[in-house]
C-alpha cells in the first residue's frame, strides 16, 4: 500500500464524525453549542485523600478560555520549576469553563513570593485557584475517574419531532448508552492529524533500541508522534464501531467477542455467546469491545475478528493506517463499543429575552470518552458557535 492509493481520498470527509451512523435517528434536527464558554462546563472528578505533607502542591483550578497545556506552562513559570514537574490528569477544552487539578513539585515547599496571577492571558481568559493541598505524589496522566459535563444547546430546531420525543430519547440513552465514538477533536482541523499520520507512515519506521540512562532524552521524537498514532487508531476504531452500528450488533456480543467489564479496564474473550453473557451485556455489566489497532490483536477471534479485519482490508485508507501502526510496534488494545451515561438529567429553558428554547444537559462520562458522542446521538446537525464569555 502506497500514498498513491490514498491520494484521492478526502481526509476531511473521512474524519467527519457527524457522518457516523447512529442506532436511531437523532430527534433534534439542529442545535448550537459553545455559544459561550459557560455553555460547556467540564468538572474533573478526582476523589482523593491528601496527605497534607510532601513536596507536591496540588491546585484545584477553574479556568475559561485557556487550554490545559498552556496553563501548565504558566504554573511552571510562576513556581520557577521545570515544566516536567507540573502534573495534570487530562487535557481540558479551551472553549469551556472547566475545573481540574494540577500538581507542582515545590522543592523544600518554598512557595513563590507572589500569588499566582498570570498576566499573559487575554480579557476573555480567566484562571481561579479554588483549593490547594500538599501531597506526597505527583498527579499522573489519566488519574481522574470521570468528567461531569453541563452542556447548553441553543437555537434548537426539531422539525418532525417534539420535546416529548427528545425527552424519550434521553431516557432511552440514559438506560442503554450510546456508541463510544472518538470525537472530532481527536482528528484535528479537517482531519489534519490523519494527514500527518500518513506522512509519518510514509517515512521508514525508526529502529527503537533499549534506552540507557544517558540516552533517555532521545525518546522525545516518539512522544511527538503520539497525536498522529492516536488519531490513526481512533479512526480505525470509529469505522469498526460504525460497521457494527449499521449491522445492529454494536451493543450485543458476537462469537469470539472480547468484553470489557463495566467501570474497569478488565477484559475477557468468549468464543461462544450464551444466555448468561447476553444478559450481562443487556444489563450493562459488560460491553462488547473494538480494537485500538496495533500488533498483538490476538484476543479477539471468530466472527468478531472477521468483522474487524474486513472493515480494515476493504478500505485503502484504513489499511495504510493499520500497516503504519504495526510497523511502529504500537501494541493493540481494546475499547468498549458502548458508552454508558451516568447521572443524566436535563432541563428545557427559555433563552433570556427570547421565546427560543434551550436544552441544558447534565451527565458524567468515564475518562477517555467524549461528550460529543452523547450530543451526536441527540442532534443531527451540531453547530459550534464562536465562544464568548
What is this structure, in a nutshell?
With 389 residues, this protein is α+β, with helices and mostly antiparallel strands. 28% of the residues lie in helices and 27% in strands.
Structural overview:
This protein is α+β, with helices and mostly antiparallel strands. It has two domains: 1-40 and 146-205 and 224-389, Pseudouridine synthase (2-Layer Sandwich), CATH 3.30.2350; 48-135, 2-Layer Sandwich (Pseudouridine synthase). The chain is built from ten helices and 16 strands. Strands 1, 2, 3, 4, 5, 6, 7, 14, 15 and 16 form a ten-stranded mixed sheet that branches. A four-stranded antiparallel sheet has the order 10-9-11-12. Strands 8-13 form a two-stranded antiparallel ribbon.
Number of strands: 16
Radius of gyration: 22 Å
Query: What is the CATH third-level topology name of the largest domain?
Result: Pseudouridine synthase
| Secondary-structure-derived class | alpha+beta
What is the top-level CATH class of the largest domain? Alpha Beta
Mean pLDDT across the residues is 91
CATH homologous superfamily assignment of the largest domain: TruD, catalytic domain
Q: Which sheet architecture does the biggest sheet show?
A: 10 strands, mixed
Hey, roughly how much beta strand do the residues contain?
25-35%
Order of helices and strands: HEEEHEEEEHEHHHEEHEHHEEEEHE
The CA-CA distance between the termini, in Å, is 48 Å
State the share of residues found in helices, binned by percent: 25-40%
Which runs of at least 5 residues are low in confidence (pLDDT < 50)? 216-222
Count of alpha and pi helical runs: 10
Amino acid at each position: 500500500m502506497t500514498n498513491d492509493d490514498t491520494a484521492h481520498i478526502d481526509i476531511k470527509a473521512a474524519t467527519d464524525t457527524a457522518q457516523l451512523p447512529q442506532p436511531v435517528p437523532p430527534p433534534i434536527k439542529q442545535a448550537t453549542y459553545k455559544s459561550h464558554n459557560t455553555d460547556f462546563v467540564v468538572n474533573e472528578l478526582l476523589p482523593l485523600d491528601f496527605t497534607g505533607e510532601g513536596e507536591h502542591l496540588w491546585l484545584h483550578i477553574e479556568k475559561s478560555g485557556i487550554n490545559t497545556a498552556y496553563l501548565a506552562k504558566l504554573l511552571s513559570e510562576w513556581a520557577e520549576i521545570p515544566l516536567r514537574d507540573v502534573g495534570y490528569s487530562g487535557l481540558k477544552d479551551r472553549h469551556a469553563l472547566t475545573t481540574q487539578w494540577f500538581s507542582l513539585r515545590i522543592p523544600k515547599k518554598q512557595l513563590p513570593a507572589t500569588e499566582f496571577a498570570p498576566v499573559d492571558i487575554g480579557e476573555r481568559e480567566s484562571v481561579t485557584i479554588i483549593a490547594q493541598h500538599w501531597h506526597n505524589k505527583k498527579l499522573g496522566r489519566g488519574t481522574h475517574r470521570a468528567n461531569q459535563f453541563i452542556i447548553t444547546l441553543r437555537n434548537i430546531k426539531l422539525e418532525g419531532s417534539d420535546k416529548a420525543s427528545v425527552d424519550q430519547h434521553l431516557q432511552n440513552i440514559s438506560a442503554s448508552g450510546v456508541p463510544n465514538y472518538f470525537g472530532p477533536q481527536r482528528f484535528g482541523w479537517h482531519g489534519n492529524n490523519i494527514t500527518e499520520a500518513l506522512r509519518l507512515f510514509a517515512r521508514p519506521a525508526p529502529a527503537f533500541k533499549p534506552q540507557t540512562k544517558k540516552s533517555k532524552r532521545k525518546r522525545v521524537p516518539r512522544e511527538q508522534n503520539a497525536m498522529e498514532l492516536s488519531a490513526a487508531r481512533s479512526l480505525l476504531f470509529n469505522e469498526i464501531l460504525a460497521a457494527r452500528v449499521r449491522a445492529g450488533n454494536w451493543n450485543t456480543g458476537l462469537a469470539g467477542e472480547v468484553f470489557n467489564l463495566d467501570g474497569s479496564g478488565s477484559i475477557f474473550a468468549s468464543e461462544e455467546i450464551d444466555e448468561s453473557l447476553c444478559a450481562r451485556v443487556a444489563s450493562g455489566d459488560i460491553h462488547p469491545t473494538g480494537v485500538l489497532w496495533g500488533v498483538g490483536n490476538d484476543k479477539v477471534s471468530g466472527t468478531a475478528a472477521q468483522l474487524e479485519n474486513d472493515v480494515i482490508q476493504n478500505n485503502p485508507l484504513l489499511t495504510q493506517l493499520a500497516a503504519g501502526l504495526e510497523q511502529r510496534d504500537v501494541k493493540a488494545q481494546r475499547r468498549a463499543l458502548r458508552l454508558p451515561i451516568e447521572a443524566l438529567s436535563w432541563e428545557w429553558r427559555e433563552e433570556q429575552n427570547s421565546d427560543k428554547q434551550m436544552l441544558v444537559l447534565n451527565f458524567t462520562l468515564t475518562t477517555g470518552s467524549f461528550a460529543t458522542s452523547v450530543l451526536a446521538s441527540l442532534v443531527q446537525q451540531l453547530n459550534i458557535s464562536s465562544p464568548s464569555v
